[in-house]
Structures are given as C-alpha cells and as structure tokens.
Amino acid sequence: xxxxxxxxxxxxxxxxxxxxxxxxxxxxxxxxxxxxxxxxxxxxxxxxxxxxxxxxxxxxxxxxxxxxxxxxxxxxxxxxxxxxxxxxxxxxxxxxxx
Length: 98
Hints:
Layout: E1 2-5, E2 12-15, E3 37-40, E4 43-47, E5 50-53, E6 64-68, E7 71-74, H1 76-79, E8 85-86
Parallel strand pairs: 1-4, 2-5, 3-6, 4-7, 6-8
C-alpha cells in the first residue's frame, strides 16, 4: 500500500507540461506525457493533497496519470482536479469509480 498524506491546501503537486510542448525529437509530446504526477501502484491512497497541472489555456494537459491501480482512494482535495485525470492500463474511470 502507498499512502501519500499532505498538509491540506498547502500541499500541491504541480507541473506545467502541455501536449504541444516540443519533445527531444522536436515533435509535440502529446497529452499522455503531460502528467504532473504518475501513479503506478496496486493500492494508492492520497489524503489532503491537490494534484494539478498549471499549463493553463495553451493546449491539453493532465494533472494525474494512473498507470495501474487496483484500488485508488482520494481525498476531497484531489477530487477538485478529477477532470484532469487520465486512467491507465486497467481502464480506471474517475467519474465511475472515484
């Protein structure tokens, strides 16, 4: 089990990657590679942490990419950014299984 506990509104994991940002090859990195945080765990719980991507209105961007999670639990702080979550290999859908 992985447990990440923050200090409420003061704990924000953020970065500003965006889909149209050029990669090492000069081509856009694409949405899949814009996550500020990547979760790859069977049992992950986040409490009092906000995950965000601060790229702004410059193209597609995601705050969290979930690579694999059999069980994923999130606090209210995280639920503020669920529109910016990309499910991974197991097809996790944050709107159907928050």
